[in-house]
Write a structure and sequence with these properties.
alpha+beta; 5 helices; rod-shaped; single chain; four-stranded antiparallel β-sheet; six-stranded antiparallel β-sheet
Length: about 300
């Protein structure tokens, strides 16, 4: 009787517990329960001894699974109108600054090109100026040298009657401020039945005389003598009388080239021989020149 009463009390308590569990709120989440498969039943030989219980006999074990956390992106507050205006102004100012820098860079490039062109023009005109100065200095040097150096020329031809000959004496002059060096003078004459040809060879029979002529000096060198019979033939216009000469010399300036002067004159005779003569001289042919005139064609062709 007491056993039946105890069983009845136990059933009442069990029902009360079940009702209490059903009365709890349903919004509480319960973790999922994964049923773990139990191991296959052991062989009879592997049975545990009596009185011991295996895990399989104890039933399934509940396992709790925790979900992986989801990354959360925080979205800031939307920008205001003032902030948009400030950002736009900053972009505009940066663009304007870039444009100004581009303009300044282009101006610097243009200025550099202009300065380079100006420098090239200045260098060109400076070269022209230096060339002109050098040419002027060379010209001044040449003029000074030409003024100071010895310059020998035929000052005059003096004549006189000397018995049965007509004496003709060249008078040489040095117009320079310095004396000659290595002066050599040669003279000759000819009585021709006609005028001298253009290709006539002005030869010299005697060797040249080595002489000296000081600055601004004058002296007779190379006197020639015409026989009176040739003079009479010239008076009668049956012959022509010629006298020519050449002087070669150097000056005292270093680097200068040798100089020369040569002449050729026709002797015009009138009157009666031997004591009543009138003599004059006329330049004849291309051999009346100096070294400067002789170099001009070569320099012009060069």
């Amino acid at each position: 009787m007491s056993r039946a009463f105890g069983v009845g009390i136990g059933l009442v308590l069990a029902l009360l517990c079940a009702g209490h569990a059903l009365a709890q709120p349903q919004n509480r989440t319960t973790p999922p329960v994964i049923e773990v498969p139990t191991a296959p039943p052991p062989e009879p030989s592997q049975l545990a001894p009596a009185g011991s219980q295996t895990p399989a006999a104890q039933g399934s074990v509940p396992v709790r699974i925790t979900d992986t956390p989801v990354p959360v992106q925080v979205i800031g507050q939307p920008k205001t109108e003032a902030e948009y205006d400030a950002e736009q102004k900053e972009r505009d100012s940066r663009a304007a600054l870039v444009d100004q820098l581009s303009v300044y860079a282009a101006l610097l490039v243009a200025v550099g090109i202009f300065l380079a062109a100006a420098f090239a023009v200045q260098a060109f005109y400076l070269g022209l100026t230096l060339r002109a100065v050098r040419r002027s200095a060379d010209l001044n040097q040449r003029n000074m040298t030409a003024t100071q150096r010895a310059f020998v020329y035929l000052g005059s031809l003096e004549w006189s009657e000397a018995g049965q000959v007509l004496r003709v004496a060249p008078v040489w002059a040095n117009s320079g401020a310095t004396p000659t060096r290595g002066l050599r003078i040669s003279t000759n004459w000819k009585a021709s039945h006609g005028e001298l040809a253009g290709d006539f060879a002005y030869a010299y029979v005697r060797p040249p005389d080595h002489l000296f002529l000081g600055p601004n000096g004058r002296a007779e060198f190379g006197t020639v003598h015409f026989p009176m019979r040739d003079v009479q033939a010239a008076i009668e216009e049956r012959m022509f009388l010629y006298v020519w000469g050449r002087a070669t010399y150097e000056d005292l300036f270093e680097g200068s080239q040798p100089h020369f002067f040569e002449f050729c004159y026709r002797v015009n005779v009138k009157g009666t021989a031997p004591n009543n003569l009138a003599v004059s001289f006329t330049q004849y042919g291309p051999r009346n020149r100096c070294d400067e005139e002789a170099r001009q064609p070569a320099e012009a062709s060069a």
